[in-house]
Amino acid sequence: MSTLIAPAPATVAPRPAGGAYRTVGLIGPPNVGKTTLFNRLTGMRQKVSNYSGVTVEHRSGKLKSGQTVVDLPGVWSLTPESEDQKIAVNVLMGKQHNVAKLDAVLLVVDGTQLHRYMTLIGQVLACGLPTLVLINMADELTARKGFIDPLAVARELGAPTALISASRGTGMDAITRFLSGEHAAAALLPVLQAGGNAAPGCATDCNNLTKTGAYRRPNHSRFTREFDRWALHPVIGPILCLLFIMAAFQIMFRAAYPAGTALSNWLSAIGATIGAHIPNAIVSAILVDGIWNGVASVLGFLPTILCMFVVITVLEDSGYMARAAVIADRTMGRVGLNGRSFLPLLSAYACAVPAIMATRAIPSKKDRLATILIAPFMTCSARLPVYALLIAAFIPARKLLGNALGLQAITMMLLYALGLLAALFTAKLLNFSMLKGQPSLFAIELPNYRLPRLRTILLAIYDRSKVFLKQVGTVILVLNLAVWFLSHMPFHNGQPSEVGASYLAHLGDLIEPLLRPLGLTRNVGISLLTAFVARESVVSTLATLYGSVNAGVALRAEIGLAGALALLVFFALAMQCTATLAVVRRETNSWKWPLVQMGYMTVLAYAASFVTYRIALAFHV
């Protein structure tokens, strides 16, 4: 399926010693399979980091040959409209500070829409770097009766060209040969003119290819056309979106949460066995209660978190997420935003930190700042362990609508909805006060629907597991130890104090008056303090304080359902994340906005929790 063509060059581009390119940039428009190709090339040899001086993430990975591939942000042209696109262009031009200059470029385009990318191809070729043009989705092109002659395309472009399918892994041999230098280098083309447009003679279109029969556009995807009649319908579309979300929560509570509970119980039994074989009581308490039980309680929520990431990955990889952005644009327009804010807000369901970084793709400064300020309201994965603990402990596993829906899943969905509504309300408030102005226009490409790729899903699970386990093995582990020592100090005659007479108890006594109107106790207050470092640590802190992996049972006796509802609302709306505050400070280049954000969210969370508690008491729950 692959064809690698290298036309005889007039001027040969310089090549690193040894013939192989050391640092290769992967560039292309969004939704052309660039990430799929990157995952296939690098596998698990990836890392995510920020460009020096700016919080724009980029992924880089190692090939088996040892070469480095840098996955650049998606671009439509080399005239950047947003910060991340500017970074991509700077890296391509070799002007990005502290980033190695590229030796070569892999330019990925969608073969089913080749005519849309000819301008970008011309602009990238005009940079003068050795470039392999990868026409992706060859399998879909064939299935939809389209045709591309890569030899004719290569002659038209004057650049090496390969026809590939990143999802199926066909055509990868062409990339291997290109990266090893086993081909004639592409001609050095004229440099870019001002404004980022390719020099005359560099850009081309598909007219000649079409006339000669070298390019035939594929038929429209019938499934995409038919399904979009429902997915983009102003009434049915939002209902479908809601059904997808409800299905995700049902899977979480019917499969992921029971699996996590079994994992926690298994780890707890191992901890008890280990503790029984340690003769020294203090050492046994430190290892089992201070370390093992706290970590085990958090690890029990790993299946729940991974389940949510699988759902998000499937929706993204299938092409549905772009439709969800269009649906969201209709709502966001009413609060002064548009669909461009949807994708950063969606990524905030994983973590607010990368979501805030992702706002650099929003051209409008007003929309970008508004999105930054409301992103922490979205329910991040770090909140999930707390939600799951409280819902499982206080909300009965009652089935509704037969067996189609459960009360616990509905409760979880309502918490997500609460965060979203708070975000939209805040955006509206900002649009009427601090950030007045007209919303910017919104445009997004709707890719064809595709079956999600198992490889992409597995890599997403691997990446998130690695991040979560690193958090458990570092920050949460240290916090657990600190909580255990503070809850058992000072020592008397070599014996630890009771929790009620410890340093931590005194700290809890100081904040308990603030929590009492919400129906909460000092143990809950202590766990909320540790949440500023890592939200997941609430579960492990409570497990350490109560001396049990399952802190839900102890909470039921201590705060009751009314207090649990108030705690859920508080946790849904409060900031409680120093990492988020730090990245807001960096993105806005000011302490004003993070302090305003922190104060506003805390007051809103406290007020909403107070109202929730009082209403719950009034209904005698």
Structural notes for this entry:
The chain is α/β, with parallel strands linked by helices and 621 residues long. A hairpin with a 6-residue loop joins strand 2 and strand 3 (57-62). The strands form three sheets. Strands 2-3-4-1-5-6-8 form a seven-stranded mixed beta sheet, with helices on both faces. The protein has a two-stranded antiparallel ribbon with strand order 7-9. It is globular, with a radius of gyration of 27 Å. The protein has 25 helices and eleven strands. It folds into three domains: 23-216, Rossmann fold, CATH 3.40.50; 236-442 and 452-466, no CATH class; 483-618, no CATH class.
Concise overview:
It contains 25 helices and eleven strands. By secondary structure, it is of the alpha/beta class. β3 and β4 form a beta hairpin.
